[in-house]
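Problem 12. The chain below contains 208 residues. Write out its predicted structure in token notation.
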Amino acid sequence: MSDTFFTRDDSAQRISLRERKKRLVQTTIEETALRLFQQQGYEQTSIQDIAEAVMMSTRTFFRYFASKEEVLFGPIHTSLYESMRVLQQVAPTATPHAALRTTFMHMADLYQQQRASFLIRYQVAAQTPSIASIYLYTMMEKEPEICDVLCSRLDGSMDYHEMRLLVGMYMAVFRIAVEIWLKQKAQGDLVSLLREYLDLCSSLSHNI
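Solution.
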């Protein structure tokens, strides 16, 4: 009788394969859901409609997504998560402005890499009054966490309330740049647009 064993590399490969399969199913669900949202409307599309279209049960759907909102807003949360990782790696000696600028420019680049996906989601949200404002404001939920990371990561040049105000300012500039970019059907360069708006905001603040 032969002994069967798995090395650490074998285990890592199995985990990697599992993750790839999971991501493939998630992508299929997302693409199908977005198509249905466009064809029949977000509110008119049920989770059961999505599940049936991808030939799975609603129970299986919930293994991948907690709700329709998660399907629609998922890339926003993912880009925020990835940008938080960038923020956590900035040098402690960096200024708050430099740290935030690097973080939000990185987020703009992530949006631009997925421009088609973000545009479809924006168009779906814009046609649905109940979620239209949530689409652009959902990123604001991360403001306190961003502020906490900055306060703990950087040398204390600002108190918490000053930092909170600064984070809110950068988030507002980012949101406005994204909204204008999406209204222009994501045709332009979001990174350049955000850089222009951040420079303008900096100039205006010095003139007040």
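Discussion. Residues 67-207 form a domain with the Tetracycline Repressor; domain 2 fold (CATH 1.10.357.10). Students who got a different answer should revisit the alignment rule from Section 12.3.
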